[in-house]
Structures are given as C-alpha cells and as structure tokens.
Amino acid sequence: MTWAHACGKVILCGEHAVVYGRPAIAIPVTEVQAQAYVEAGPAGQGALVIAPDLDRRVVVRAAPDDDPLAHIVRGVLKAIGQGQDPDLTITVTSTIPIARGMGSGTAVSTAIVRALARHFDHWLSSQAISDLVYQTEVLYHGTPSGIDNTVIAFEKPVYFVKGVTREVFWVGRPFLLAVADTGIASPTREVVGDLRRRYQADPTRYEPLFDRIGEIAMAARSAIAQGQTSELGRLMDENHALLQEIGVSCPELDRLVAAARQAGALGAKLSGAGWGGNMIALITEETRGSVDMLLRLAGAVRVIITQVR
Ligand code: MEV
C-alpha cells in the first residue's frame, strides 16, 4: 500500500480580491490533514475511490465527467502515463472540516495526486501537483484563483497573484493563529458567484475596495517578513472591514471577530469565502487561552491553533 497526505489551509489576507488579480497570502495548516491510500484492486475492477467520511464510493470509469473524485484520479493517471484504468483501490480520509474555507476538497485532491504518483514511482514537482489539482478546483468552485491548490501543494506560506506569481516567503518571526469555526458551511462557489454578479453590475464600487485589499496583502507580507506582528494584526482588522463592505461576512463571523479582539487578539478577520466557515485571529502565547475561551462562548464549534513559520 502507498499513502500520502496533504494539509489544510487558511487565507491570511486578500481573499476574493485575489480572484480579481490582487495579491493574497495563504498559510498551510498542518494540524488538519487529508490522506489517500492506494492499493492494487481485484482484476477488472478499474480505479475505485472510497471516501468513508463523504459516504462515497466512486467507480472512476462509470462516474460522470464532473465528479471531482473521479476527475482528479483521471487527471493524474493521464499525467503520469497510466491512463488505461488500472485496477486500484484509493481510500481517502480527512480531518479537515468540510466547507469551512480550509481547503478540504483541495487537500483530498492533492493527497490523491501524491499517493498515485508515489504508487507508480512517478515524481511530480509541487507546481505540477498544484496545476493538476487546479483542474479539479474549477469543478468545485467555478472561477478559483488557484491560491488554495498552490498553498496546499507547496505546504509553505505563499504570496500569490493569479497568473503572475506565487512566492514562498520568509516569516521573520513565527506567529500564532486561532482558526475558529462558525459551524456554518461556507458556500465558496455561491459567494464568489454572488460577488461577481454585484461586481459586474457596479465595477467602480468594487475596484477601489479590491485595490485596498491588495495593498493590505502587500503590506502584510512585509510586516510578516520583518516580524512586525502588531502591524499584521492591524492589517487583518482593516481587511475584515473591507470584506464586510464587499458583502461576504455574516453576523456569526462578525461575532467571533469581535470576541477574539475583546479577548486580546492583535487582529481578527474572516478567512476564505465567507458567509460562514472560519475566522482567524492573531494571538500570542499570553492571549491564546482567553481568545480560545471567548471564541467558544461566542459560538465557535471548533478552535484550531496553528503556528506560522
Ligand atoms: C477561497 O479560499 C478564497 C477565495 O478568494 C476564492 C479563490 O481565491 O478562488 C474566496
């Protein structure tokens, strides 16, 4: 049996504006992971994907073109020259909360690509893995920027501009993030699509807001490189206000953001597509206990603490 894993992720700043060509920063979250196990299957079975957490069993050759699990398996088998439906059983498990902006689907695809490549002794670069996963991201999300597949494939903090650059960058001083779950699914495709319709109806309203979000991502990158943690917190607060303004927050996210700040977080914002999902708070060893407690009192169903380095 061959296996591989892939981490989760959060967007530190720049979500949504990144779809419109502005920079954004994403961070890997290694505390949660997807795993894929590959073993030979009975003769004639072809490729079969079993995903107990999703209650899914997918016979790849019989699955529709737009089935994401079948799509990624077909894509990687073709890319590594094994396109003739080999007899394989691929089992997928994950501890990444689903539909919370933590890249659960992206991580499952990435783990499948890595495990299949390893099974056939085929080396793929992180960029090649990211590119393959991107093809399936389009099925999930419609018009993804590509930041999720990039950060998960590279498993390092990335500064990303769609179609222009992806840079793994230097973290001057490690910092802690609390990732708190509203318990509400974040419908990425719908939120991105709704914002697109509003943007198309009134681009002059949204362009300056996207510009400012992009400037925040640039400033956050240099604050991180220089170890200016308080400045990063200020930028996260401003980014959240802009995300409220573009209509992607919700009362539950705003409540968690307020609770984290009240508990002493240096900054807090929603993370990912919004309308639910997760928020992130910049914390220290001193504030982690109080932030964790107030977030739970304010309705968080889960709090994950991750160190960014
Ligand atoms: C999703 O993690 C981040 C969004 O900016 C969408 C994207 O970049 O594809 C909302």
In percent, how helical is the residue content? Answer: 40-55%
Number of strands: 11
Largest sheet: 7 strands, mixed
Shape: globular
Please write the string of helix (H) and strand (E) elements.
Answer: EEEEHEHHHEEEHHHHEEHE
Strand content: 25-35%
Distance between the termini: 32 Å
Bound molecules: (R)-mevalonate
- Computed structural class: alpha+beta
Low-confidence region ranges: none
The whole-angstrom Rg is: 19 Å
Mean pLDDT over the full residue set = 97
Can you put this structure into words, describing what you see?
By secondary structure, the chain is an alpha+beta fold. The protein has 9 helices and 11 strands. The protein has helices at residues 68-79, 104-119, 126-141, 147-154, 188-201, 203-225, 229-245, 251-262, 288-297; strands at 2-13, 24-40, 47-51, 56-59, 88-94, 158-161, 165-168, 175-181, 267-271, 278-283, 302-308. Strands 1, 2, 3, 4, 5, 6 and 7 form a 7-stranded mixed beta sheet that branches. A hairpin with a 3-residue loop joins strand 6 and strand 7. Helix 1 packs antiparallel against helix 3 (126-141), helix 3 runs antiparallel to helix 4 (147-154) and helix 8 runs antiparallel to helix 9 (288-297). The longest helix is centred in the last third of the chain and has 23 residues, at 203-225. The radius of gyration is 19 Å and the shape is globular. The mean pLDDT is 97. Bound molecules: (R)-mevalonate. The site of (R)-mevalonate (MEV) has 15 residues, from helix 4 and helix 5.
